[in-house]
Amino acid sequence: MLFNSFDFLFFFPIAVFVFYFLKHKYRWIWLLLCSYFFYMYLEPMLLLLLWTSTLIDYFCGLKMEKYSDQKIRKRFLILSIVANLGLLFFFKYFIFFTENAVEVLSFFGIQMEATAGEHSDYVKILLPIGISFYTFQTMSYSIDVYRKEIPAERHLGKYALFVSFFPQLVAGPIERSKRLLPQFSKVIHFDTNRIKKGLIMMAWGFFLKLVLADRLGVYVDDIHYNVADYKGLPLLLGSYFFIFQIYYDFSAYCTIAIGAAQVMGYDLMQNFNRPFYLNSIADFWRKWHISLMKWFRDYLYIPLVRKYKFSKVSAMMVVFFFNGLWHGASWTFVVWGVLCGVLLIADNKTIPIRRKILSTLGLSYKMKIIKVLNGAMLFTLIGIVTVFFRSPNIGQAGIYLNNMFSRSSTAFNVYHDWFEFYLSLFLIVVVQIIHFYKGNDRVYELVWNRPRWMRWIIYLLFIVVMVLFSVNRQNNFIYFQF
């Protein structure tokens, strides 16, 4: 089920009403049923895969807690990881690796029939929505139990709810069991203030998605579908707009998820923290898709450095290789991930040199103008690299970048509808200012503690803006494909 659908507008109020109507000891059952209904709404067969992942990790968690022998515990950890990654590989990467293996063998003169490609469309239809998210969530549980950081959850129903909790099931944030699981056991009372805050956050998420992200998507799609027709500034603008589009689209989903969970009394982690107010590339990645980057830090980067003695640079490149691959079965995502890693390392290694140059000129990173110029430069570099993320293949990305740095006599012919162009810029500025002062998690303060008459004016203005300026062009959130 999609957040931005009329189905959800009927589903969510019913889910909340029944949740508060039931006694505490029955609420987990209702939430689990709602979560399964939410997930299987578009494709019921996907529920079998979710059950498989849930049962395997629940069983492995109990066995790891039962045995004290480290070798036995490790066997069940390996079973959990292999099972989860095996399912992820089969449903998401099997076709990609098969097609590439055929090409490699063909290069060495070994001809094989590439039947996988003929069925790729069928496999894409079967690709389970959100599999990358809940797979990482369940694996983190198994690893934490193995490390004895948390006890194994003995209540199968509540563990199943942890895996499938509908607000964050499809596109995150990727929750940790130590944060979310205990919340399903606490008694939640009806709290009007908390519900209001949650609804305001949900409204803000819908605004980001329907009014801003989808509006930017109109221009971004036009640029990428007709990349050969543009040169210079329009393509650079397209790369900028895509960064904002994916940010507003993904943060919209997470904001709606966080708000929906809060309405029912549960706290989900923030997935963004003003990522475009950055001092370095590392600063960007600390603020962007926080739940995923913390996952890679805790379960991949730190073990590589501490246990397997990788250098920090090597471990970082491994992390960003898998960061790219996690996003999709395509070389464009792999190249994007690797380039992000290269940018991060290059930025980090050249900081002393840049500081020395600035010092020689009598300047400093503490100066506002230098901060602004540094942020603009880093944002541009991120935008250039993200061309690979958006492009359908490496060749298209190459054409895009080549044309971006080509001169054009029509450099200022960047938009077919100038009203939409200026409206997009205005909305970006407004949202960035709001996020600067309120962050991604305190937007409700724009309405909170205002006089009642002012709050109702804000509510009415919001409805008017949504009716007049929503762009009904894209059903799915971008991160549904990952």
TrEMBL record:
Keyword Nucleotide-binding recorded: no
Residue ranges that the Swiss-Prot or TrEMBL entry lists as coiled coil: none
Subcellular location: Cell membrane
InterPro entries cross-referenced by the UniProt entry: Ac/AlaTfrase_AlgI/DltB, AlgI, MB_O-acyltransferase, MBOAT_fam
Membrane topology designation: Multi-pass membrane protein
This protein's record includes keyword Transmembrane helix: yes
Sorted UniProt keywords: Acyltransferase, Cell membrane, Membrane, Transferase, Transmembrane, Transmembrane helix
GO biological process: alginic acid biosynthetic process
Location, primary (coarse class): membrane
GO CC terms: plasma membrane
Top-rank lineage group of the source organism: Bacteria
TM helices/strands, residue ranges: 5-22, 28-56, 76-96, 199-220, 240-264, 333-351, 372-389, 418-437, 453-471
Family the UniProt entry places it in: Belongs to the membrane-bound acyltransferase family.
Stored PANTHER family: ACYLTRANSFERASE, PROTEIN-CYSTEINE N-PALMITOYLTRANSFERASE RASP
Annotated protein name in UniProt: Alginate O-acetyltransferase
Species name: Galbibacter marinus
